[in-house]
Amino acid sequence: MYPRAVNADSRLDRTMSYRRKGWKVTQMSKGEFLDTLRSKLTGEIPPGKVRENIDYYSQYINDKVRTGIAEQDVIQMLGDPLLIARTIIDTQGCSEATDSGTAYSYETDPQESRGRSFGRSKTMKTWQILVIVLVILAVLFSILRVLIPIILPIVLIGFVISYFSKRR
Question: What is the rounded distance in angstroms from the CA atom of residue 88 to the CA atom of residue 53?
């Protein structure tokens, strides 16, 4: 009898079910967590950002430990450092420049990018003008709503008085 092949998906499913049941799959120290995070970030984002993120997570773990939470529990609450690294790379990699001076971009044609951003700014200006006009109209209507009960009787009395004064 041959051993049954186990694919990565079934291992992942088992790991996720262990986590759902509250079982600890792996124990990781603060140093291992930060080293894993550092190794995955290095080369993907600028070195300054790598240090910034490592310092942040190190400080975060230290702060939680000082409040009385066990280091292992803090690391488990943070989750997988590989997933954290992927999230950092995806979010910072698109907006930050790399050491070579180029920025990550999803645009393929710079001319096309300029045209779209120009169109967006026109649309934003149109929306801003529309919002300003609506706010002004709302203020005017609220003022008129208060003044009409006062002004209307005065105007009607003025018309009545002018009507009777012309008849004499």
Answer: 8
